[in-house]
Design brief:
Helix content is about 40%, strand content about 20%. The protein is α/β, with parallel strands linked by helices. The protein has one domain: Vaccinia Virus protein VP39 (Rossmann fold, 3-Layer(aba) Sandwich). Helix 3 links the parallel strand 2 and strand 3.
């Protein structure tokens, strides 16, 4: 991995740095239609100040910057400097009002700053997601909106049944759990929001599913990217992971098969 980053990204089960770029780009493309609908429903508009927590390569941050225009601002924070640098270059190329900071959510100290605070697929990896959500709520101004999209990984499906896919889903869940995360945090989010004192808490559940296209390759790519964590934890050998990836690639190439992303919980609420 580039940037002298640890190969397992300091406890994060997925790789960071340059090797994460391909996966994040594909995931952003596959996930954008449902995230776009969510942001439209919440009412992101011109002039708002937004924070994207755990922004990765800034895909959602840049979309927010487009929506808030020159009178607003989108800020993205992440601990992966490689992804942030890519995000900065893209923001400059498109002349967007976006700022990117190398920062962990645990170090977020802003209070009552943002009209909207957003996070996608971050809380699932954290040992204390409730504390991270509290930081996000503090960063929102009174009347502002907090949004989280996160997963129930066990709710993946494919058709027809594929043993390699079943093994992938199992290994991912076990690896994340070993690292202290919750791979099935999605159903917990409403309770976490209520515990954090948010009002008018809403819920939608989506599950993008693919017969073809980049989104159908996410399982195979993700399996490659958790190999280090899986092997280090003794959950599977490198040879088994390689076999799983090969079988997933073969399954994905068949136009008669379908593959889903995890079940995704979209939860949002207002800071009183």
């Amino acid at each position: 991995m580039e940037m002298n980053q640890p190969r397992n990204n300091e406890g994060y089960v997925l790789l960071g740095g340059d090797r994460a770029t391909k996966r994040l780009k594909i995931l952003a493309r596959a996930k954008w239609p449902t995230t776009k609908t969510l942001l439209q429903r919440v009412g992101v508009r011109n002039g708002m100040r937004c924070l994207d927590v755990g922004c990765g390569n800034g895909a959602v941050t840049l979309k927010l910057a487009l929506r808030v225009g020159s009178t607003g601002q989108a800020v993205g924070i992440d601990r992966d400097e490689c992804g942030l640098e890519l995000a900065r270059r893209n923001a400059a190329r498109h002349k967007l009002q976006a700022v990117f900071r190398a920062e962990n959510v645990a170090d977020l100290r802003e209070v009552s700053v943002y009209d909207l605070v957003y996070s996608r697929f971050l809380l699932t990896h954290l040992r204390k997601p409730d504390e991270a959500l509290e930081r996000m709520v503090l960063a929102a101004r009174p009347g502002g909106t907090v949004i989280v999209e996160d997963i129930e990984f066990a709710a993946h499906f494919c058709y027809p049944p594929c043993p390699a896919f079943t093994r992938y889903v199992d290994l991912y869940q076990r690896a994340v759990t070993r690292k202290g995360g919750d791979p099935d945090i999605g159903p917990r989010l409403v309770s976490l929001f209520l515990n954090a004192g948010l009002d008018e808490v809403h819920l939608e559940v989506v599950q993008p599913t693919f017969r073809s296209g980049p989104g159908k390759h996410i399982a195979s790519i993700t399996m490659e990217h958790i190999q280090d964590a899986v092997v280090q934890e003794g959950l599977a050998s490198a040879q088994e992971v390689e076999r799983i990836v090969a079988e997933l690639d073969q399954f994905t190439a068949d136009t008669r098969t379908i593959l889903s992303l995890p079940r995704i919980f979209q939860v949002w609420g207002r800071k009183g």
